[in-house]
Design goal:
The chain is built from ten helices and five strands, in the order αβαβαααβαβαααβα. By secondary structure, it is of the alpha/beta class. The chain has one domain (3-197): P-loop containing nucleotide triphosphate hydrolases (Rossmann fold).
Length: 204
């Protein structure tokens, strides 16, 4: 085993999965406060898409990511994420936005990996969160939201597609987030409890 392989295998990844606007992004602030590297797979896709991300919206970004997985393998964004992780000397990193089970397989092959799913209390709560956060490209109507949501979960998607439901099935733990945008105290408490159960010690 090479030095690089030993270094990767010594790392612990906490990989977050779940539908849009479930609260996963709130853990970025949590990680930053503890100087824990936080890597967003969605940002990897946006960076790859370049300027067109501003024009094609969320559904277009799903199409783009699927096309890249089809061309370069379903774990392509896991591999791109790993490039960032492996350049950091921290033994612990948070990865946000896993949406395909092959990404899960890649992470578990190369690192000690804990997958945590985060879901809203209900689709209605998720839609309220989407409206509250108001990101460009997010669905604006309930009909648009439901179409994007069903696709994100994996309905009608192939091997290279969105597979959030399957990723949640593969998770080591799932947190139902009762809070809306800006109300994540309970989410953080449950997240820290899971890390403690997994033997991860956190500096307070």
């Amino acid at each position: 085993m090479s030095a690089a392989q030993r270094s990767a295998s010594d790392k612990t990844l906490v990989v977050l999965t779940g539908p849009m606007a479930a609260g996963k992004g709130a853990l970025e602030e949590w990680a930053e406060a503890r100087s824990i590297p936080f890597v967003s797979m969605s940002e990897e896709i946006e960076e790859h898409a370049g300027k067109q991300k501003e024009e094609i919206g969320r559904e277009g970004m799903q199409d783009f990511a699927n096309a890249q997985r089809r061309a370069h393998g379903p774990d392509v964004y896991a591999r791109k994420t790993a490039e960032h992780i492996d350049t950091n000397h921290s033994s612990l990193a948070i990865v946000d936005g896993m949406r395909n089970v092959r990404e899960c397989e890649y992470f578990r092959t190369h690192y000690r990996t804990i997958v945590i799913g985060i879901v809203p209390e209900s689709p209605d709560q998720e839609f309220e969160n989407v409206k509250e956060r108001g990101r460009p490209g997010d669905p604006q109507t309930k009909e648009q939201f439901e179409q994007v949501r069903q696709r994100e979960l994996g309905h009608g998607e192939g091997e290279e597609g969105q597979q959030v439901a399957a990723c949640l099935d593969a998770a080591d733990a799932v947190i139902v987030n009762p809070g809306g945008e800006g109300d994540h105290e309970e989410l953080v408490r449950r997240f820290e409890a899971i890390l403690s159960e997994q033997g991860i010690k956190l500096d307070r």
